[in-house]
Automatic annotation (TrEMBL):
UniProt-recorded name of the protein: GntR family transcriptional regulator
Alphabetically ordered keywords of this record: DNA-binding, Transcription, Transcription regulation
Membrane-spanning intervals of the chain: none
Span of domain HTH gntR-type: 10-77
Amino acid sequence: MAAPDGADRESAAERAYVALREMAMVYRFAPGERLNEGTLAHALNVSRTPLREALNRLVSEGLVVADPGRGFRARPLDVKEVFDLYETRLALECFIAQLACERATSQGLDEIDAYLDESVKAHDSASVDRLVRLDEGFHERVAQLTGNGELARMLSGIDARIHFFRWVDMRGRRATTQAEHRAVLAAIRARNAPKARAVMRDHITRRLDQIVDGIRQGYASLYMGEGPASTDDDRETT
């Protein structure tokens, strides 16, 4: 078999990255599990080189852990890490809400209004994972209102790492997120930065005991073979 050229290898690495990122986001691998590169390469129909490129990329994003001399393993369910991520998200999204008050266009706001209307239609029949992706879609669209691509990329990276915990949390909060999203958007439309920051803060804030409880529920869900779906049909694009 001829060696793949650079473009083919890059394509294979990208395909592996997309698939493995999704699997890592929803804890398809058990926390701390050592990843079998041979099995993964076969399952994803790629060679070891692009597979390792994808895995190293996920290491840099905090979704996979490198084990020097021994390969890679799945990230653990770590209370401190998850709390740090929520704390970082809180600071980032409060700033995003403030900046959106200054920079949002009427068209951008109207598009998010339409997005929320569509979200409401899907709400009653949607799976929990679908609701999480709709929630992520709202927040990432608000970030796009700032016109700052780096803020949007930072938020997307955090979202990937807390996706599983939002799935756990959403199961008990299905009825509240829509109203909170509407309140955030109304404050941004009114150009009321203090209000937008305050509403966003209330929407995101989680105490450490809530994080601990969420991780306990997450362990229980994984033990029972439950977890967020990872199908293309449930994937929300932004």
